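ok new one. same drill as before - structure tokens go in, u give me an amino acid for every spot. 159 of them this time. try not to just spam alanines like last time pls lmao
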């Protein structure tokens, strides 16, 4: 006669309680702290916060708009401060208070002026005229830019 195999996992250590029997020595009772009252719905487990497609799309749109705005601002800034003697300039605006001067290639059809002198420092009015007369005898126009320690004066003539 053969003996039947033992019930349960022969490799498990200790004895397991059959299904439905409480673990440990204390029975669980409804209404105690940590247990929902009988008949209460069990809340779903909380998941980590996920970004929806709509949120990601909105973030991408904001980044694109910001990039275009920053690029436009950089492109619209004048670059008269980068001009050097001998460079050619183009005037992008008819406003005398903000002529929007930019450095262009002297062979370019947009080139309107040639820089005869660039003088560092804060100059205005008659001081600017006299500085240009001393540095560039045949100048026609004076452009001053005052920007704190980066102030300068350009003496220009028609190309």
């Amino acid at each position: 006669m053969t003996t039947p195999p033992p019930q349960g996992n022969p490799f498990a250590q200790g004895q397991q309680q059959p299904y439905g029997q409480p673990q440990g020595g204390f029975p669980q009772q409804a209404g105690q702290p940590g247990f929902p009252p009988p008949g209460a719905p069990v809340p779903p487990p909380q998941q980590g916060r996920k970004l929806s497609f709509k949120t990601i799309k909105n973030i991408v749109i904001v980044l694109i708009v910001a990039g275009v705005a920053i690029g436009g601002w950089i492109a619209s800034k004048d670059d008269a401060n980068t001009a050097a003697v001998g460079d050619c300039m183009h005037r992008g605006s008819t406003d005398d208070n903000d002529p929007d001067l930019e450095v262009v290639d002297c062979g370019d059809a947009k080139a309107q002026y040639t820089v005869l002198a660039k003088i560092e420092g804060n100059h205005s009015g008659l001081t600017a005229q006299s500085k240009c007369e001393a540095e560039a005898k045949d100048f026609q126009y004076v452009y001053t830019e005052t920007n704190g320690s980066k102030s300068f004066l350009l003496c220009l003539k028609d190309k």
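The beta strands are 88-91, 101-104, 113-120, 141-145, 152-158. and btw Residues 53-76 form the longest helix (24 residues).
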